[in-house]
Amino acid sequence: METDNVLTNTEDEKKLYRKARRRVHMKIHFAVFVLVNVLLWLLYYFLFRASSLESSVFNFFLALSLIWGIIVLTHYLIVFKWGSSYVEKEAKRMQEKQKKQEEIQDNDNTEEN
Question: What is the pTM (predicted TM-score) of this model?
Answer without folding.
Answer: 0.64
